[in-house]
Design a protein that fits this description.
The protein is an alpha/beta fold. Helices cover 32% and strands 23% of the residues.
């Protein structure tokens, strides 16, 4: 089969390696089946999409809705490169799954309103599928309601009319959407289990997501939740587009 491509942008090696391992594990992929490019480390090389089964964009410390003057040179470069790649992906309706940062990237590219209105703290959240979500092949075998882990400063406040809303939560109205037939974004993390969240809390305790002194409490709270359903999205994505 063709490999999938993971576009990552976590500068911290521990977070980057933990994320990559999670996509391998829950996607049922061997390392040679999931190529990774760390966008924060170097410019995006020229890509031939025909060499890949699909593209995955992982989470990121970048906040796409921040004012331009507050963004680093690296963030500006990554955003330009992803926007250029999305031009091609959208034109081809190429298989795409963006997790968390995917809402900011695919959403903004398609005209969604992305801002800080519906940010959510790190932790477990109940996600509810819409009727369209229940019928979508990427959500096959999933219950209407399930627990997923979140942690985001920004979210989608308004989707463009051509997007299909697939999932919401009580505190965030857009948790998953589809563009055309093959391009998806989730606000929750389909690759994240409790121990993965604990790792990220530890790594990002000084990144502004939460008061640093609350890290231990958040870790304990994360371990109270069990998230097993979101990983089916990765399993379904790989099964649907592997070739």
């Amino acid at each position: 089969m063709k490999p999938f491509l993971l576009l990552a942008s976590r500068a911290e090696d521990a977070a980057a390696e933990d994320e990559y391992a999670a996509y391998l594990r829950y996607g049922g992929l061997a390392p040679e089946q999931l190529h990774r490019i760390r966008l924060e480390a170097a410019p995006l090389p020229d890509l031939d999409l025909a060499e890949y089964a699909g593209v995955i964009v992982g989470g990121s410390p970048f906040t796409s809705s921040d004012p331009a003057e507050k963004k680093s040179v690296t963030q500006h470069r990554v955003e330009r490169e992803l926007a250029g790649l999305l031009d091609r992906i959208v034109a081809e309706d190429f298989p795409f799954l963006g997790a968390c940062y995917g809402v900011g990237t695919l959403g903004r590219h398609q005209g969604a309103l992305i801002d800080r209105t519906f940010g959510e703290q790190l932790g477990g959240v109940e996600i509810e599928l819409t009727q369209e979500g229940l019928a979508d092949p990427l959500l096959r075998g999933m219950p209407r309601r399930f627990t997923a882990f979140t942690g985001h400063k920004e979210a989608c406040t308004k989707l463009p009319s051509h997007a299909v809303l697939l999932a919401s939560s009580r505190t965030c109205p857009v948790h998953m959407f589809r563009i055309k037939q093959n391009m998806y974004a989730t606000q929750f993390h389909p690759e994240l289990d409790a121990e993965g969240l604990v790792t990220r809390i530890d790594i990002y305790r000084h990144a502004g997501y939460f008061p640093p002194e609350s890290a231990e409490e958040l870790m304990a709270d994360a371990r109270r939740f069990t998230a097993t359903e979101p990983m089916k999205i990765l399993t379904n994505f790989v099964a649907r587009y592997a070739s």
